[in-house]
Batch of 2 targets.
Target 1
Amino acid sequence: MNYSDWLSRKGLEYRKEILYFADKNTLDIANSYGTPLYVINEQMIRERYRSLKNVLNLEYRNNQINYAVKANSNLSVLKILNSEGASFDCTSMGEVYTCLKAGISSEKIIFTGNMFTDTDFTFAVNNDIFVNLDSLSQLNRLVRVYETFGKEKKGISFRINPEFGAGHHKHTITAGRDIKFGILEEQTIEAYRKAKEAGFEKFGIHQHIGSGVINALDFGKPAEKFISIIEKIIEELDIKFEFIDFGGGLGIPYRPEEEPLDLESYKNLVIKPFLDLVKSKGLGEPIFKIEPGRYLSAESTILLTQINTIKDNGFKLFAGVDAGFNTLIRPTLYNSYHHIIPCDIKGKEQEFEYDVVGPICESGDILGKARKLKKLKEGDHLAILDTGAYGFVMSSPYNSRPRPAEVLINNETVYEIRRAETFDDLLNTQKIPDHLK
Ligand SMILES: Cc1ncc(COP(=O)(O)O)c(C=O)c1O
C-alpha cells in the first residue's frame, strides 16, 4: 500500500499542505478545541464494523461481533456501534454499567471478567448479564449468587486458554500455561460437567489469545486447539453450544509499511475450521462470535497535540508537545509505534530527526523516537495516528494534568463528546480529615 493510500484508509489527506481528517481541517479543530485533543471519525467506526460484518456474513449468517468495550468506552462510540447492530464484550462492572447507560440492552452484553468477585457476580446477575467465567473455582460462587437472588440461571460459558497466544507485546498475549487467563484443556470437561450439574442449560465457549495480532497466521494454531477442545467437550458431555467465541485481537497497520490484517487468511484459519466443526459434529447453527476492539476503533481517531518546545541539546533534537504518556500511554507501556505527522507540511522538503516527547516528569515520556519530520517550530501542531483504541481509556491524570477532551466528527460537523477535565476534577473525590482542615 502506498503512503497516501495508507493515510486515506484512515480518513487522512493533505489539502494544500494542511492535514484534513474526516474532511475537516485539523488546524481549525485544534484552534477551536485546544490540545491535546482526541478526534474521532464516526464514519470510520461504522465502516470498519460494516466491512468486518460483511466478511462474516458471506461465510456464515449466524455471526455476532462483540465490540471489546475496553478499547474505547466513550458513550458515543458505544452508541455508534450499537446502532450498527454490534454486541458488547465487557471486562468489568464499570464497562457493563457504561454500556447500560449507553442504552445497550442486557442481552447484547457478555461479561468476560477475570478474577471475578462476588460483587461482580451480583451486579451481573441483577442486571441480567451473561457471565463468561475465567476459573473453575468461580462456578460455585456464581451459582450461589443466582440462588441468593432467586434469579433464573442465564447460560454460562468458560474462557478457554488454548495455550497458543499472540500479540503485539508480551503483556498483551493472553494464552499460555503461565498466563493468568482462562482455563486449560485439562479442566474444561470438569468445568462444563459441573456447570451442567449446577443446572445451567445454555452454554457458550470462548477464547481470546491476545491483542494486536497483525499476522493472521497467528490465529491458526490457537483456533485448531480451541476446536479440538470443543470436540472433546461435545463428545464427553453431549453439550450443545449456543455460541462459540473466537475472541478479538485483530490488529491494524500502525506503520506505513504494514499491510492491513489479511482477512482472507483469517477466514481460512478461523471461520473455515469453525464451519467444518459445525458440519462434522452436526452442531446446528451456533452463533459464531468474535470480539474485536482495536480493529473497530483504533484507526477512527487521531490525537492532536501542539509543540511547545523545540530543544536542540547539541546531541539530538526534541520536539516537546502537550500530550504525554498521561494522554497516550501505549508508546511508553508497550513500546508501541504510533505514526506522527505534522498538521501543516509547508517546508517539508527539509527533514530533521526528532524525539517527540511529552511534558511528564519522566524520561520514558516519549511518544515517538527518532522521527523524520519537517523542520518543526514551537506552536506547530502534530497528529498522532491510530489512537482510538487503548488511547483515552488508558489515560491518567498523572503529574496532576487533567485529561483531555474528545470530539467526534460526523458529516463534517464536530461535536464535543467529552469536555477536558479541570483542576477541580482532579481534586473532587478527595476528603480532608478534620485535623487537617
Ligand atoms: C477478552 C478480550 N476480548 C477482546 C479483547 C480485544 O482485543 P483487541 O482490541 O485486540 O481486539 C481483549 C483485549 O485485551 C480481551 O481481553
Note: The chain has a mean pLDDT of 97.
Target 2
Amino acid sequence: MAEHILLRDLDVPDIKAFDVYVQHGGYEALRKAVGMTPAAVIDVVKASNLRGRGGAGFPTGVKWSFIPQSEPVKYVVVNADESEPGTFKDRQILEGNPHQLIEGAMIAAYAIQATAVYIYLRGEFWDIAANLDACIEDARKEGLIGPDVLGSGWSCEMYTHLGAGAYICGEESALLNSLQGLLGQPRVRPPFPAQKGGGLYYEATVVNNVETLTNVPWIITHGAEEYKKIGTPESPGPKIYCLSGHVAKPGNYELPLGITFRELIFEHAGGIPDGKQLKAILPSGASGPVLPATDAVLDTPLTYEAVAQIGSTLGSASIILMDETVNVAWAASKMMKFFAHESCGKCTPCREGTYWLRRRYEALLDGRAQARDIAILDDVASQMTGVTLCALGEFAVNPVRATIKHFRADYEAWIKQEAAEDKKAAKPAPAREKAAAR
Ligand SMILES: Cc1cc2nc3c(=O)[nH]c(=O)nc-3n(C[C@H](O)[C@H](O)[C@H](O)COP(=O)(O)O)c2cc1C
Ligand code: SF4
C-alpha cells in the first residue's frame, strides 16, 4: 500500500486544514454521494464489505441498511471514546485528518437520511473536540453541513460531545445513555440502536467508530471493487494497527488487513528490543484473549476470521507485546484491576465477578495465594461467561482464562517464588492473619 488512506497526515502536510483537504480532493466523495440515491450509497458500502473497526467487525453497509427509512428522525453517532488499553488510532485520525472523518460521517448520515450527527469523544480529547468544532464550522460555511446540504434538499447538523472518562461509555448503548445525559450504563437489548426505541433519544441510530467512517469517502470515490483489492475478501481494506509494549518502534501502522503478526512486528515495527524473545501477544488490548508468540501465531494473518480461529479477537487491533521478562500472571492482574474499576456495576456477575477476581489477583501479588487459587480464578471467570449484560463482562474473563490456558507456568512460578521468599525470610504470615487477608 503505497499511500495512506486513513493516516493521510503522513503523506500530505497539513491535511487537517479545510483548504488543504479540499485541494487534495476533500469533500468530493460527499458531493458524489448526494448525487446518488441514499440506497445506492448503502449498496456501495455494502459491496465494499467494509467491517466496523470499533472491535466487533460488523459489516458497515449492512448496519446502515437496518435503519428504517420511514422514521422521520434518525441519527449517526460517531464513537470516538477510544478507551481500550493500547488503542490510539482514532486519536491520530482526529488530530491529523479530521475532515475525512467529518466527510465519512456526513456520507453515512446521507445514506440513512439522518437529521444530525453526534461525535462522542472521550473526555481527555477536549482539545481535539475544540478543533473538530472549528472544522465543522469550516465545513458548515461551505454548505457541507447544515440546512440543504450542497443543495440536495437534505439537512443535517453535526455536534461534538465530551464524555467523562469511563471505559464503558465506549460500549454503544452506554454511550447513547451518556450522550443523553443519563448514567453511562449499557441498555438491555432489543431494541437495538438501529431500531426505534433503541437509539439516541430512542430514535433509530447508526453508531460507528471513527476509523470505520474514515474509510467511507475513499470507498465512495474509488468504488467497492478498488477497495476490495486491499486486504482479504472477508476482511478488506486498510487497518491502523496500534503497536505498544516491548517493540522497537511502537506506534500506529496503516497497512492492509491480512498481513501477518510476524510481518507487522518484525518487518515494520523493528522487532523486539534488546535481543529479547517475544513471549505473549495481546491482539486487541486488554479485552481479547492473550496468545503465546509461537510460529503458528506469528504466521497468522491479521483478519477478523483468522485471529478468531486461533482463539482470540482482532478487535480494534491494539496489539500489546510482552517479551520473555514479563510474568503474564502479573500482566493479567493489571488487566483485572482495570476491568474491576471499569465495571459499571449494573449486572451481578460482572460487578461481583470482577471484584472477587481482582481480590484473588491481589492475593497472588501479595504472596498470599496457593496453588488451588489458579483453579478458583478459572472457576469464577467461567461462571461469568455468557451471563453478563454487555461484552465488558466477557472481556474481563479473557485475561484470566487465556493466561491460565497458555501461561499456567507463570502462575505456578509466582506462587512458588513467593513461598520460597517467605521461607527464606522466615516470616510466613500467621495462618489466621492469612485467612483474614483472604
Ligand atoms: C466495553 C466496551 C468498550 C467499547 N469501546 C469502544 C470504543 O472506545 N470505541 C469504539 O469505536 N467502539 C467501542 N466498543 C464497540 C462499540 O460498542 C460498537 O460496537 C462500535 O462503536 C460500533 O462501531 P463499528 O461498527 O464502526 O465498529 C466498545 C464495546 C465495549 C463492549
Ligand atoms: S457486564 Fe459489567 S459493564 Fe456490562 S452492564 Fe454488566 S456490570 Fe456493567
Note: The first strand starts at residue 74 and ends at 80.
